[in-house]
Amino acid sequence: MRGIVVGLGIAGAAVATAGCTSAETSEDANAAATEAAEVAPPAGLDALAADIVARPNISGFGLAKIDDGETVWTRYYGEQSDGVPVTERTAFNTASVAKTMLAETVLRLVSQGRMTLDDPIHAHVSHPDLADDPRYEMLTPRIILSHQAGLLNWPHNYDDGRLAFIDEPGNGEIHYSGAAIELLADYLQARFETDYPTLVREVLLTPLGITEISVSREPWLEGRVPHPVGGDGTVYPPFTRSASGSLIEVGETSAADNLYATVPAYANFLTALMADDGLSPELQAERARLHSSSDGELGYACIAEGPDCPDPIGYGVGWGLFGEPDRMVLNHGGNDFGEHAQVYFAPETGDGLVMFMNGGGAFPAGIEVLEMVEPDLLMAKHFRALINKMQEGEDTSGE
Fold it and tell me: Is the N-terminal amide bond of 264 cis, ω within 30° of 0?
């Protein structure tokens, strides 16, 4: 069975049970852990999770809830491989959540006076597809991290397989681009003459005291990474890159994709960002200031009912922004052929959530979890309206 493993963290201290071998054991473990907790998960969460991990496209997931700047509970459900439960040691592939490592590394380099957000990248790195276009000289870390580089996501999104500008960089219009993110990582490596994993570790993770997060495939991950599950239920070997079956090699690095992290490690990362995280108040405010938005890009125009719409919706520096009356929610998602992730934090209130899910086509299930954990979250209401619209479109196209 896909069992339930429970870990409840009180002020950052995690307590975990072993994998459950029966429904009775699972219920007893959950009850004991919940009774010991000062802040308990929603009453219906375990039942929802049992339903989710029974679906063929999702094998397991982990959660960490943050209140007032502290991790107050964690939960682990299902399996990372056949017979091996998801636990606090499971190192999930979190897909595009990788981009948050780049953003926070850049912000710290800026805070240290080693660069600015508005330095042109062309001074240190060129690209064969773009270098002859004068617009390439307009690209800066700020423009790239707020997804207004004017590029499509990847070269394969172009008919000829070559990057090209589809819009003016820096015009405030969102064009989500992993290729631009990789360009920025190349820029950092060239400028500081240091490989990207070392920069992330030395500038960001080590000063914050964070371990068990990696931007590349490293030896510590062996035996701890889930077997990806495709949207059709196909199970793949760990480190599979896509449904084609190609593997991420040892040492392979990406700034835009395939971040490996445990749930407690990323929760510690978010709590560190909301504490004295090494950034000036001005840079923290800049991170959460709206830099770009879009009425045309799917997902950035609110289609929920008026009071359920976040305002604004867009990008700050490296993070998606979803405004609420009393706080700004900073979010990043990850969605790939065999994984889904949602992370968010609200600096004004100290709230946040980490959700890492092993499964393809898992975005709707992830939103069910967000709605259960934080029913009033406007970001979740926005995503729900988006899912409903997409499903209506599918129904219409099938008529």
Answer: no
236 CA to centre of own chain: 21
DSSP H helices, 217-299, are 263-274, 281-287
C-beta separation of 93 from 360 below 8 A: no
Tell whether the model's pLDDT for residue 32 goes beyond 60. no
Decide: helix, strand or coil at residue 122: helix
Please return the burial class of 245, using the count of CB atoms within 10 Å of its CB with bins 0-12, 13-18 and 19+: exposed
- Tell me if 60 sits within 8 A of 86, measured CB to CB: yes
> Which amino acid, residue 229?
V
Q: Closest Cα to residue 265, out of 88, 28, 56?
A: 88
Q: Which residues contact 3 (CB under 8 A, 6 or more apart)?
A: 19, 20, 21, 26, 78, 79, 85
Please state the length of the chain.
399
The pLDDT tens digits for 201-222 are 999 999 999 999 999 999 999 9
Alpha carbon 253 to its chain centroid, in Å, reads: 17
Tell me the two tokens of residue 274.
Answer: 């909301």
Tally the C-alpha atoms within 13 A of residue 58's C-alpha that lie toward its C-beta: 25
Q: Determine phi and psi for 268, rounding to 5 degrees.
A: -60, -35
CA atoms within 13 A on the CB side of 268: 20
Whether pTM > 0.85 for this model: the answer is yes
